[in-house]
Amino acid sequence: MAYEMKKDIVFVTIAFCIALLLFNIFSTKVLFTDVSQYVNTAKEFADIATSKVRVFSSAVYPWILGQFLKIMPNMLILKILNFIWLIFDALLLYWYTKRKETVLIFVFAPVVWYVASWINPILPVSFFLLLAYLMLKRYEEFKEAKYFIISALALGLTAALWLPAIYLSVFFILAFFYNKKLNNVLLYFIIFLITFSIRLIIEHYYFSFPFLTLIRGFGSNFLFLVSNEDGVRSNFLFLGKTILLILLSISPLFFRIYRIKFKPLRKEIIFLALSFILFFGNANIRYFVVLMPILAIIFTDILKEKEIKWHIILSVFLLAFLTSQYFGETRDYLIQKDLKQIEKDYAGEKFIVGAEGVSEEQAMF
Length: 365
Prior knowledge:
Blueprint: H1 2-26, H2 35-45, H3 60-71, H4 75-97, H5 100-107, H6 110-114, H7 122-142, H8 145-161, H9 164-177, H10 182-207, H11 212-226, H12 231-234, H13 236-250, H14 266-280, H15 292-302, H16 305-322, H17 331-345, H18 360-364
Helix pairs in contact: 1-4, 1-5, 2-3, 4-5, 4-7, 5-15, 7-8, 8-9, 8-10, 9-14
């Protein structure tokens, strides 16, 4: 039985890898939200940028991507470096649960495929948040210090990579340490700062100011909260439809969440509830891939065997709907085609270009 299980999970993992690779090869859409700022900053760190860009939420992830761009300056390489974290998620889920059902729930979740082509730190954040959670669970079970340390270091990396992960880190510590001794909380936080400081070190080295993106990020978040210009928040009908689509993108059978057992999962429920409230404030499907690995573990015990099959079947139809605009002659494909033709027609010539009515990072892309 164990051999058959390992054989199945190897097959699922290989199929997942191949499917993700083909998905990204044939996807012609590039300019997803925030992708341009991360790619442009990565190009700057790789010394291949044609302009200086200062719009990004953290320098850490673009810096990492930039080191690879120095060796292989190719968009597909960036996509591979990005979606590989989804594979790591699946492998880590199986390592902890030893259940094929958990992996299948995660692999077929529509939200996973929705963000599979996005060059964005939310994918590595999903892995390190899962690692922080699982290592803390192992520490609670075995009381070995190495699990405690790895958990804190992993959580620190999430906050170093992505600004909203700072809020998630606060929720995580509140949810899982509310009944712990203060010295344990302080020790966890000190270890957390070790990896979080990577963000400060890189920004101090390159920009001579360690809090550059923190101030910018918290400032923009504050303006978003006090602004009355955001139509989504005032349009409750639209917001309701968006939230429904988000829940379905986690699982078409999300309504089965009522089966969750509160007492053994009260910490997870507190953390997820706070995180859902945060993400619903700027309702977008892509954010929820960060929580999807933990949700996959929970849904493994919620869904019955037949329901997992329905999760897979319905998810295939939903992800086809969500990603249908990623392929064919997309706007991004036509832009690339035009640029190649211009390069061919005016070989060796240089152009000064600009853009009107777009953000800085979009203009620089």
